[in-house]
Specification:
Blueprint: H1 4-27, H2 30-34, E1 37-43, H3 50-60, E2 64-79, E3 84-97, H4 100-103, E4 107-121, E5 124-139
Parallel strand pairs: 1-5
Antiparallel strand pairs: 2-3, 3-4, 4-5
């Protein structure tokens, strides 16, 4: 049986990675984003590796003048003996496009869910596999 304090600490560490990811995307700090994933991980928004995902972000984010990611509900289930976890994090995202004409809109508001599989290696939690579900979006 896992110590309840160890579970709380694991949940807190995972939550901090979620926050670091959001901050990294909003501030365009690609190394910070990449540090949230294991190198052998995946993100369903691209086929390929985490490095391919970061390359894709480097292509698409310059089209966004500013963005904000705000988490609402975050549910984390940790299996400490296995060193794994699963989480579902609801995220409200507002993006302002650099070129509204080219993008077909000035602003995109999206509600997403990040469905993540986590792994702990050498005491550090990172995303192993991420599936992003877009529940709804609205363009202005």
């Amino acid at each position: 049986m896992s110590d309840p304090l160890d579970l709380v600490l694991a949940e807190r560490e995972i939550t901090r990675v979620l926050y670091r990811y959001a901050q990294g995307v909003d501030r365009r700090v690609f190394e910070q984003i990449e540090s949230c994933y294991w190198a052998d991980g995946s993100d369903n928004r691209v086929e390929g590796s985490v490095a391919d995902y970061i390359d894709w972000l480097r292509e698409v984010l310059p089209n966004v003048a500013t963005s904000t990611h705000q988490y609402t509900n975050v549910l984390i289930d940790v299996d400490l003996p296995a060193g794994t976890a699963r989480s579902e994090a609801y995220c409200f995202n507002a993006s302002i496009f650099a070129d509204p004409v080219a993008n077909g809109a000035a602003r995109l508001t999206t509600c997403l869910r990040y469905l993540d599989e986590w792994q702990q290696r050498d005491g550090e939690w990172r995303i192993l596999n991420r599936v992003v579900v877009r529940d709804w979006a609205h363009q202005d």
